[in-house]
Amino acid sequence: MNDIRAELLTIGDEILYGQIVDTNSQWMSAELDKIGVRTIRKTSVGDNEADILQAVAEAESRADIILITGGLGPTNDDLTKPCLCKYFDSKLVMNEEALAELTALFEKRGRTLNERNRNQALLPDKCKKVTNSVGTAPGMWFDKNGKAFISMPGVPYEMKKMMEDIIIPEIRKRFPAPVILHQLVKTVGIPESILADRLEDWEKNLPNHIKLAYLPSLNQVKLRLTATGSEKSELEKDIQAQVDLLFPLIGEYIFATDDENLEALIGRMLKERNLTLAIAESCSGGFLSQLITSVAGSSAYYRGSIIPYHNDLKINNLGVKKETIEANGAVSEPTIIEMANQVRKMFGASIGVATSGIAGPAGGYPEKPVGTIWIAFADGERTITKKLQLTTDRHQNIYMTSVNALNLIRQSLSVND
Amino acid sequence: MNDIRAELLTIGDEILYGQIVDTNSQWMSAELDKIGVRTIRKTSVGDNEADILQAVAEAESRADIILITGGLGPTNDDLTKPCLCKYFDSKLVMNEEALAELTALFEKRGRTLNERNRNQALLPDKCKKVTNSVGTAPGMWFDKNGKAFISMPGVPYEMKKMMEDIIIPEIRKRFPAPVILHQLVKTVGIPESILADRLEDWEKNLPNHIKLAYLPSLNQVKLRLTATGSEKSELEKDIQAQVDLLFPLIGEYIFATDDENLEALIGRMLKERNLTLAIAESCSGGFLSQLITSVAGSSAYYRGSIIPYHNDLKINNLGVKKETIEANGAVSEPTIIEMANQVRKMFGASIGVATSGIAGPAGGYPEKPVGTIWIAFADGERTITKKLQLTTDRHQNIYMTSVNALNLIRQSLSVND
C-alpha cells in the first residue's frame, strides 16, 4: 500500500499581493483526496523565476505529484512556461495539435487568432500537451524519475475541466493509492469547546486508524473522521460504527453526515414533504434567497421572494399593517410575524420565512443596536420567531441571519418527524 | 531603503484536504501590502509536527516576518503551540493576564470556563501574548535575531481583529518599509488578449520602476500597476501619468481605478443622480439583490426586489401580462421588458432592472439552451435589453447574469453623462 503524496504550487503576484483568493488549491486538493492522493503541502509564489524554480525543486524532493497552476496567460508577466523549460532543460516548439485546437476554439468564438494567442501553442519539447478545451492555454505534463509535474492555467474554470477530463483519470492510472475514507458530521448551533467536552470519551476510544478533526466556521462545526487502510468495505463499517455512537451524544445538532449543505438539505426536506417556500427578506437583502436558489432544481419547492427594503414596501406591497410598524418598528416580533405570514399567503406557498434587522454598520440605536435581527417561520398553523443579537459587521450579519433562517426552517420541519 | 519580506504559514489538515478555502492568507497579504511589506511566499501544511517545524525553519531562512495561523484551538488536533514551544526551546506556563482575559470573555458570554478553555491561557515562556479580544485562543509573538514570528488563531474574525488592533501597528513600528504603490485599473467586457494587444506599446514604454500585471476573472480583467521607490508623492505622479495614458486606449471598458467594486460604483452613481432602484430577478434568484445590498448605505438608493421564480408570480404579483408569457415564454425580450417596467412602477423606483433566463443545469431546450438569459434596464423613458448566451454551469450563470446586469446599469447611467 503506497502513500501517494502531492504538492500544489500556485503561481502569481496577484496571490501574494492578496488581490485574489486562491480557490484553485482548495478545489484541487479536494479532488486528489477523493482518489486517495494526500496533499502534503501547498505553496504560493510570485511571478518570479528564482522563486518558481526553488518551489518546484522543493516540491520534487517531497512529493510524487506536483500540480502547478497559473502563469500561463498570453501576457509578459506569465513566467511558468519559460521556468519549466529551464527546469527540465527543454526548449519551446510549436505544438501543431495545440495550434489546431486553438484555431478551432477561436473559430467557434468568432474571433481571429493573433500572434500572442498563437504563441500559446508553443510548448516545451519534453512535455506532453494537456488539452484545454475551454481556454487558450494548453496544460503541460512532465515526467521525471517516476514523478509527475503538471502545469495548468490559473483560470479556475479551465483548470477544473482539465483536471476532471484528463489529469485525474491519468493520475488514477499511474498512482494506485491506499484507501482513505473521510466522513463528515456537520453540526450547527453548538460551540466547539462544548462539543469537544461532550465527545471527550468517544474521541479517546477511537481506533488508531481513525483520526478526528474539528472544522469550525461561522455558526457551524464540522467533525471530520478519516480512516486509512486497505479494505474499503472494512473502513466504511468502522467509520459507520463511530458515527452511530455520535448520535446519542450530539444528535440534535447534527444536520448532515455527507456533502449536503444546509440549503440543499432544506430543499430535500421540503420536496419530501411536498411543501413550498416563499421568503420576505429585509436585512438579508437577497442573500437567503440566493442560497435557496443556488441549489439545482430549487424551482420544485421555491416559489419566490420579496425584498421590501423600505417600510412603505413592507406595508403597500407585502401587506404588513401600518399600525404594526408604527407601534413596534420594522425590527420587531409583531412585524416579523406579519411578514412571514403575508409572504406565505401572497405567493401561495406552504411556508413563509422572513428576516428583518439592522445589518449595519449604521442604523442602530440603544434599544436596537446594529446586529439586532428577527427571523420567523410560518406554516399556517404555527409562527415560530427567533431574535438574534449578532455582530457589528454587515457581511457577517447578512450571512449569519441567512444561516440562522435556514436552521430555523430545518428545526421547524424536523419537529413533525 | 529596506525590502521587508514576509511569509505566511497556514496550518490545518482541513486546508490540505480541501475542506475549507484558505481566505486568511489572502487577507493577511493584502494588509501587509498596504504597509509596504512584501509577501514572498505562502505555505500551507497539515496538523503534523515535522511539517510545521520544517515550514517555520524554511520561512525563517527567507523572510523577516513569519505570520502563522491555525492550530490554536482547544482540541487535541491543534499542534501549533507545542510545535512553537519546541522550535523556540520554550516551555508552557500559565499566563495570568491571558487567563483573566479569557475569564472575562466567558463571563460576558454567560458561560463558565472548562479545563480545556483554561489551558488556552497556557503560553510558551519565550513569547509575548497577543490579546484575542473576540475569542478564546491568545496569539503569540516570538522574536529571534531581529525576525518576528507571530502565531494567530485560524478563525478569520479573530485573526483579523488581532492583526488590525495589535500586529499591524507593531510591524509598522519595527519594520520601516520602502514605498510600494499599487494602482488598479478595472475593466469589464473586454477579453485579456485583446486588451494586451491594445496596450502593447504602452506596456513597452512603462518606466522600469513600474510593473504591470493582468488579473483576469469572470467578465472582468484588472490591470495592476506597481511602483516601487522612496518618495510616495513621486510614485503617485508616475503612476497617475501612466493611468492617464490608458484612458484614450481603453477608457470605455474601465469602470474603476480604485478599490470600488461594480456594485459600490452603481450605488454611488445612483446616489449622485438622486435615483432609486428596484429589481425583478428570476434566474439570478436573489444574487443580484444581495450584491446591491452588500454595500453599506444601499438603503439610500435601493427600494427593494421581487423574485418571481414561478410564472404565476410574474403574472399575479409582478403584473406581467399572461399573454406576453404565453406567446413568448418567460425567457424572452417582451417578458423582460415588462418585468423591468413593472417592478419600477410597483416599487416606486426611478429605475427597474430585471433578469430572466435558464440557469441550468436542467430546463433548456433547442431554441433556448441552458445559459440563455435576458436582462433589462428601464428608467421610464428608455428600456434597454440585452440577451446573454452563457455557460452550462448554474453558479457561473447566476454570477455572470448579475455582473452583466450591474454593467448594464453602469452603461445605461453613463450614457447621460
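qc> The mean pLDDT of chain B is 93.
qc> done
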